[in-house]
Structure formats: structure tokens, C-alpha cells
């Protein structure tokens, strides 16, 4: 039914003209384009802005809903005290890195590979990629569980955790990373669907998981009736439960044949692993850069101001992390649109799509950043009233908020580059951001002793990230061959 609705929105395809010496086309001799699903044809021929908006709105609303749940969870945890809030701030960069790796980096590699296969008419490869995606994400999920359970105490201690904040971090971390494989598999199934241009089913699955998590989180954190209060650990159990439900729904959607690319048992082939990892592995480095920027500057803030300052900075950066799901609403369609068009040889259209999506992301994230810079207390006051926390968080938002638009611009072009399968330039731009933010922040702290200059270094890093990446992609770097 959904495909018939899409067909009605598309202009009729021009009839194929037979050459004088060519027999009339038969179903066995149809071109790949003629056999494409209507959704794929929409990605190739639909008007850019309406198509982007049509595909983005389910993702954007649902990603914002999912991020809002994290904020609600933080609000409930803040009632447990500053140590609990600081503990979640220590875990949050690593948890978000896992989400970004599984959904945005490796997940983007999955979506890009499937989009390029469908755009090129390689339907059997698209089906086989589903199995390869599940193998990759399943193994990575298990690896995350092992690493964080083994090295969590050392990691959070190095980031400034001590005493009660370190204990709270470990309580939360052991549970959410213990269920890491659910997050990785959920994002594998969601990326398969998004690679085909289906943004609605992943959104529905996430909404259902969110609806379960919203009441479950305060129930498990603070207890009620026969349900004991689990504290910070309860927040972790709520996350794992909601994600488990979303994973089950997405698995059903793909395994029941409601996806253009379907799971079929096949011999594992390195070429198909490479199709995913050639994008996903490089994108993972870019994701690591983003997370390291937050994690290392958290350590700088801890050195300068202690746990109270970490709580304020961590609360402020939650708004920065909120930009990621906001841009992901546009980013997932960008992966599918750019990948499908490049697979079909429509390079000029692919570039127009990327730059249009980047401009839309800039406007959305800059609006958020300016509002946060003007009214920082409206955001920070939701999570606590400790004077040191409010002071640090407000200083961060006033300095960095006006640069959020450039972060959103660069992030959108990073997703578009995933679709193009060309992630070298986003990687370089992310490295520049990391060096300016962390290196500049350390130098500023040593020279001035003031966090205000550290935050200005973070803002400058965002501007460089967005401007450099836009200039490089607009120059046509995707389509130039090395040498």
C-alpha cells in the first residue's frame, strides 16, 4: 500500500524506445531502472527539498522524542543528587558514541551499501548485505560489552570520576553496556530499512520503545509500591528494556519481508563486508573524534572545576548531543538519497542533495544554539539549581551555542559523504575540530586558568569543522580520482 501511494506521487516514467535492430523489450530484458521499486525511483527523480522533508520528518520527530527521553531520564536522576548527575555525565559520551557508531557510522555504512546496490540495480547484493550487516553489528555489540565491563572503572576515573560520582557511573554503565548487543542489532535492522528509503518503520519501532521507557524510568529509579527503588541502575534497566522492544519490532519488520532488501541465507563474502566497512570503519573514526572531543574536554573541565563543574558542563553538552538526533533526521535520508543517486551515476544531483541538506541542518541547529545562548538557565534549570553547575553550564552555552549551526552543517555533510562512500574529508575536518577544541582548550586553560577561553576554543572548532567540510565538498572532491 505504501509503495502504491509513492507511485501516485511520482511522474510517469517515459516509455523506453527500442532501437530499430532491437526486439521489443520483454520482462527478461528490462533495464535495472525499469525494475526498480517506486521508492527507489522517488530517491532518483523526486524534487530534492520535498523529498528530503518527506523522508526526514519521521526520523526528526522520533529522534527528538528519543533524545527527549534521555533528558527526562537525566531529570529523574538529578533528584538523586549531584553525584548521580555527574556519574551519568561521565557515562554519557561513551553511550552516545556507541549509539553514533551503531546507528550513524556502521549503520550509515549499511544504509549506504544497500542504497548503492539498489540504485545500481543489484538486488541480490542488497539482500545479501542484510546478513552481513547483522554479523558485523552483532560482533561489535559483544565487543563493546566486554570492553566497558572490563575497563569502565579506569575510563571513568580518568575522566574525573571519584567517590560517589564514580560509583554512580559504574552502576549505570554496567547495565546499559551489558545490553549493548541489543542497541547494535536494533540499529542494524533500522539501517537496512533506511537504506531502502523506508524511514517510517524504524521511527515507529523507536516510538514504541520510547513509550515504554518514559514511565518505566522513574518507576525503576525511584520505586513505587512493590517495585524497589534501584537508583541510577534503574535508569539503565529502563534503557535496555525499551531498546529490547524496539529491536524485536525492527527484526520482525525485516524478517517478515516488509523491507525491499530482505534477509537471505548466503555465503559470507568479503566484498560485501567491505561495502559496509569501507564507509562504516572510516565513519567510526569520525564518530570517535566527536566523542573524544566531549570526553577530553570533560577531563579539562574536571581539572579546572571538579565534579560540580562537570555536572554543569555535562548538562550543557546534552543539548549539543541533542543536535545529533536532530540532524540524523536529515542525515538518514541524505545517506539513502546520495547513495542511490551515485549508484545510478547521477553525481550532480547527489551533490545538490548534499548541499541542500547541509543548509537545512544549519538553519535548524543554529536556531537551537542561539536560543540556548540567550536563555541558558531555561535549559540548565531543568536539571538542577547548584550555583556552580549553573555557572559552568551557562558559560558553555553562551560561548558555544552560536556555533551550533556549523556543527549541524558539518554533521549533515558527514552523513551525505557516507552515502557517497567518500569519508576522507569528513575525517580530516573532524580531526581539525578535535585538535582545536582539545588542544586549544588545554592551552587556554594553562594560560588563563579560565573555562571561558576553553569554551571559546570549542566554538572555534565547530566553525572550522563546518566551513572546511562545506568548501571541500562543494568543490567536487567526491568525484575527483586520486593521482
UniProtKB/TrEMBL annotation:
Segments crossing the lipid bilayer: 55-77, 97-118, 130-155, 175-193, 200-221, 227-255, 276-302, 322-342, 354-375, 395-416, 423-445, 451-474
GO CC annotation terms, alphabetical: plasma membrane
Positions of region (Disordered): 1-33
Composition-biased stretches (Low complexity): 1-10
UniProt cross-references to Pfam families, sorted A to Z: MatE (PF01554)
Compositionally biased tracts (Pro residues): 11-26
Molecular function terms from GO: antiporter activity; xenobiotic transmembrane transporter activity
Membrane topology: Multi-pass membrane protein
UniProt main location, coarse: membrane
Cellular compartment(s): Cell inner membrane
Source domain of life: Bacteria
Keyword annotations of the record: Cell membrane, Membrane, Transmembrane, Transmembrane helix, Transport
NCBIfam families membership: matE
Name this polypeptide is given: Putative efflux protein, MATE family
Native species: Belnapia rosea
Amino acid at each position: 500500500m505504501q509503495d502504491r501511494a509513492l507511485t501516485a506521487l511520482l511522474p510517469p516514467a517515459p516509455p523506453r524506445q527500442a532501437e530499430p535492430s532491437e526486439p521489443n523489450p520483454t520482462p527478461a530484458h528490462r533495464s535495472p531502472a525499469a525494475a526498480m521499486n517506486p521508492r527507489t525511483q522517488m530517491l532518483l527523480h523526486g524534487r530534492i527539498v520535498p523529498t528530503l522533508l518527506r523522508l526526514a520528518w519521521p526520523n526528526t520527530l522520533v529522534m527528538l522524542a528519543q533524545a527527549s527521553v534521555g533528558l527526562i531520564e537525566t531529570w529523574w536522576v538529578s533528584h538523586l543528587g549531584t553525584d548521580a548527575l555527574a556519574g551519568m555525565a561521565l557515562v554519557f559520551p561513551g553511550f552516545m558514541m556507541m549509539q553514533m557508531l551503531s546507528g550513524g557510522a556502521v549503520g550509515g555504512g549499511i544504509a549506504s551499501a544497500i542504497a548503492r546496490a539498489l540504485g545500481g540495480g543489484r538486488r541480490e547484493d542488497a539482500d545479501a548485505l542484510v546478513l552481513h550487516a547483522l554479523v558485523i553489528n552483532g560482533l561489535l555489540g559483544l565487543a563493546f560489552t566486554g570492553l566497558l565491563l572490563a575497563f569502565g572503572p579506569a575510563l571513568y576515573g580518568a575522566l574525573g570520576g571519584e567517590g560517589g560520582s564514580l560509583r554512580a557511573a559504574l552502576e549505570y554503565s554496567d547495565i546499559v553496556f551489558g545490553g549493548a548487543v541489543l542497541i547494535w542489532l536494533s540499529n542494524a535492522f533500522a539501517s537496512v530499512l533506511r537504506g531502502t528509503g523506508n524511514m517510517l518503520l524504524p521511527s515507529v519501532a523507536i516510538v514504541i520503545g520510547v513509550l515504554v521507557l518514559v514511565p518505566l524510568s522513574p518507576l525503576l529509579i525511584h520505586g513505587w509500591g512493590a517495585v524497589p527503588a534501584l537508583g541510577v541502575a534503574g535508569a539503565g534497566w529502563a534503557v535496555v528494556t525499551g531498546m529490547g522492544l524496539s529491536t524485536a519490532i525492527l527484526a520482525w519488520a525485516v524478517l517478515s519481508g516488509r523491507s525491499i532488501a530482505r534477509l537471505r541465507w548466503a555465503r559470507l563474502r568479503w566484498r560485501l563486508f567491505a561495502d559496509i566497512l569501507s564507509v562504516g570503519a572510516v565513519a567510526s573514526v569520525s564518530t570517535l573524534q566527536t566523542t573524544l572531543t566531549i570526553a577530553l574536554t570533560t577531563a579539562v573541565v574536571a581539572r579546572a572545576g571538579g565534579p560540580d563543574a562537570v555536572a554543569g558542563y555535562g548538562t550543557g553538552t546534552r543539548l549539543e548531543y541533542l543536535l545529533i538526533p536532530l540532524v540524523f533526521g536529515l542525515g538518514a535520508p541524505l545517506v539513502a538519497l546520495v547513495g542511490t543517486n551515485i549508484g545510478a551515476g547521477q553525481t550532480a544531483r547527489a551533490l545538490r542533495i548534499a548541499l541542500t541538506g547541509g543548509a537545512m541542518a544549519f538553519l535548524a541547529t543554529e536556531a537551537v544554539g542561539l536560543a540556548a545562548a540567550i536563555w541558558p538557565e531555561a535549559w540548565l534549570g531543568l536539571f538542577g539549581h547548584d550555583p556552580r553547575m549553573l555557572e559552568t553550564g551557562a558559560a558553555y552555552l553562551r560561548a558555544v551555542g552560536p556555533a551550533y549551526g556549523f556543527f549541524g552543517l558539518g554533521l549533515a555533510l558527514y552523513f551525505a559523504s557516507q552515502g557517497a562512500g567518500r569519508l576522507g574529508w569528513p575525517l580530516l575536518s573532524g580531526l581539525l575540530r578535535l585538535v582545536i577544541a582539545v588542544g586549544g582548550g588545554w592551552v587556554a586553560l594553562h594560560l588563563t586558568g579560565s573555562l571561558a577561553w576553553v569554551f571559546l576554543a570549542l566554538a572555534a572548532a565547530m566553525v572550522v569543522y563546518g566551513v572546511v567540510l562545506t568548501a571541500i565538498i562543494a568543490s567536487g572532491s567526491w568525484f575527483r580520482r586520486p593521482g
